[in-house]
Amino acid sequence: MGRTSVASLKQRMNKEQCPVIVTWNVVEYRKAAQKHVEQTDVVLEVGCCGGTTTSIIGKQCDFTMGIDQTQAEIDIARKRFGQPGHVEFEVMDAFDMPAVLRMQEKVGRKFNKVFIDINGSRDIGPVCDCLDKYQKVLRPELIVLKSIKLKNLLYQCVPWDEEHSEQTEEAAEETKPSEGAD
After folding, report:
1. CB 122, CB 128: distance < 8 Å
2. Which of 4, 10, 94, 148 is the most exposed place for a label (fewest CB within 10 A)?
């Protein structure tokens, strides 16, 4: 699945936002990278830790940048996987959007895909805040997000759709506890 799939996802959505793929764990997160990153992409990984996923992404695209707030993790990532001009790493707070924009300007390339792993079991609030910031500020074509709690929540949701309201109501009924049940 490549750009055509991302384009088809965008047709079903708010045109101001990009598609977001939510993964449970690092296995799904890396599979999403293998499936959705193309050679011409310029990718930002937020929360790169020791750089393993950033390096996997880097094997598939022109340029990838991994950011993490911990200097020790970035030092490890640079030593193990750094390739100036191709796979790079910077110490940065994921929520500091002015710094992210300065880094993008310094790199001289627009990040068209963003991968976010800011602790997969973190509460949903900060995860959604981070997601919102990257959608609004970088306006990428695609975001891949690792979050157990958000993916679990999404599986509990049934979006209302007037066109298919009977199906939506049936799905909601299936999740209701039966009457008289304790």
Report:
1. no
2. 4
Write the CB contacts of 83 (distance below 8 Å, at least 6 apart in sequence): 58
Question: Which pLDDT value is given to residue 1?
Answer: 42
Let me know if residue 26 belongs to a domain: yes
Q: What mean pLDDT is reported for the chain?
A: 88
Q: Pairing state of beta strands 113-116 and 142-146?
A: parallel
pLDDT digits (tens, 9 = 90+) for 102-146: 999 999 999 999 999 998 788 999 999 999 999 999 999 999 999
Nearest-angstrom CA–CA distance, 160 and 82: 46
**Is 8 domain-assigned?**
no
**Nearest-angstrom CA–CA distance, 154 and 22:** 9
Rounded to two decimals, the pTM is 0.82
Structure token pair of residue 70:
């911990």
The Cα–Cα gap between 134 and 44 comes to 10
Domain of residue 60 covers 17-142
45: tokens are: 């990984």
pLDDT reading at 79 higher than 90: yes
Total count of domains within the chain: 1
Query: Whose structure tokens read 């799904």?
Result: 28
